[in-house]
Specification:
The protein has 338 residues and is an alpha/beta fold. The chain folds into two domains: 4-127, Winged helix-like DNA-binding domain superfamily/Winged helix DNA-binding domain (Arc Repressor Mutant, subunit A, Orthogonal Bundle), CATH 1.10.10.10; 149-337, Rossmann fold. 52% of the residues lie in helices and 18% in strands. Strands 4, 5, 6, 7, 8, 9, 10 and 11 form an eight-stranded mixed beta sheet that branches. It has a three-stranded antiparallel beta sheet with strand order 1-3-2. Strand 4 (171-175), helix 8 and strand 5 (192-197) form a beta-alpha-beta unit. Helix 3 crosses helix 4. The termini are far apart.
């Protein structure tokens, strides 16, 4: 009669073997190996992957389903788009090591197919770049009009860098990342960097801009669709959260600040960069600003309710004043004392 420990070990062995068979079955098809190699280069939508592979979307979707069931690929929905990324690095590292080894010794077997895939992948990159340039071309006048209302971006970014204090920022989360400029600025000093935005269009623009950017630890910057009222992150998973020119679009700013603070580790920081109170009503009607800036008292109340201790705000004066509000998350012990 087997012991409970032996029974558990037997079950674990069966699960392990099942998982191993699922992985090897997923790899036993040339198209699926091509998919993994392409996703190693960059995240792709199902449509883009079909374009590179020269196959129909339904056929590619079937291959993706097999890889996803083996947990080698992750699917992520952004609006009407579905983006694909690689799964767990621990599973994929030995797979890619084996593929790289094989390619070194059998390069002639892969050369023609691999070269064609790389050429079509570059075409996808070019399309993304073209779409980004077209979007900026159409919206350039709007962006310039907004920028002219406040101090230069260079001055704002200089103040941000001085305030958050590189060299080490830890785990950075940019909430309402837009075109990803804050990630571009701060990722080189970060252990990891993730940007969330509700708009699939903005995320596509950010993805073009940040395609080759890395964090200080060499990690790829991640971009995800997300609602700033309910971020798909656990408590304590960030050291610095940023709301850069994003809070004014929120119907309930207090809830956004509370959610931004929720994911902070003890001692972690939230930086809000936005306009001080102003009376430019056209920004509400023309640019969908829910709030015409914020007061220091307002921000301090919201910070306090979220368990944040506010530093002295920084003002950058222009036609509209830009404010930088920084709050630090108290530990539970500190919160009880205060």
């Amino acid at each position: 009669m087997s012991t409970p420990v032996a029974h558990i070990m037997k079950l674990l062995y069966i699960v392990f073997m099942d998982r191993t068979l699922i992985i090897f079955q997923a790899l036993a098809e040339p198209t699926r190996l091509r998919i993994l190699r392409l996703l190693r280069e960059m995240e792709l939508s199902v449509g883009e992957l079909a374009q590179v592979l020269g196959q129909s979307q339904p056929r590619v979707s079937r291959h993706v389903k097999v890889l996803a069931e083996a947990e080698l690929v992750e699917r992520r929905k952004e609006g009407s788009w579905v983006f694909l990324a690689l799964g767990d690095e621990n599973d994929l590292e030995p797979i890619f090591a084996a593929l790289d080894h094989w390619r070194r010794f059998h390069e002639e077997d892969d050369d023609e197919m691999g070269r064609a895939d790389r050429q079509r992948l570059q075409a996808v990159r070019n399309v993304r770049m073209g779409e980004a340039e077209d979007w900026f071309e159409v919206h350039a006048a709007e962006w310039d009009a907004i920028r002219s209302l406040h101090v230069s971006e260079q001055d704002v970014e200089s103040a941000i860098m001085k305030l958050v204090g590189p060299p080490s920022l830890g785990r950075v989360v940019d909430i309402g990342t837009g075109t990803g400029r804050m990630l571009e600025l701060l990722a080189p000093y970060s252990q990891s960097a993730v940007g969330f935005d509700r708009s699939p269009s903005m995320l596509r623009l950010a993805r073009v801009k940040l395609e080759n950017d890395r964090t200080a630890a060499g990690e790829e910057i991640k971009l995800r669709q997300g609602n700033f009222y309910a971020l798909p992150m656990t408590e304590g998973s960030a050291d610095l959260t940023i709301l850069h020119q994003a809070l004014r679009y929120a119907q309930h700013p207090a809830a956004v600040i509370a959610e931004s603070a929720r994911i902070l580790s003890p001692g972690g920081r939230l930086l809000v960069v936005d306009f001080a109170l102003h009376d430019r009503e056209e920004l509400r009607t023309r640019d969908a600003h829910m709030y015409l800036g914020f007061s220091d008292d307002q921000m301090q109340q919201w910070f306090k309710a979220a368990g944040l201790v506010a530093d002295e705000p920084i003002s950058l004066d222009g036609e509209l004043t830009v404010k930088l509000w920084l709050g630090r998350l108290q530990s539970k012990k500190q919160s009880r004392v205060t």
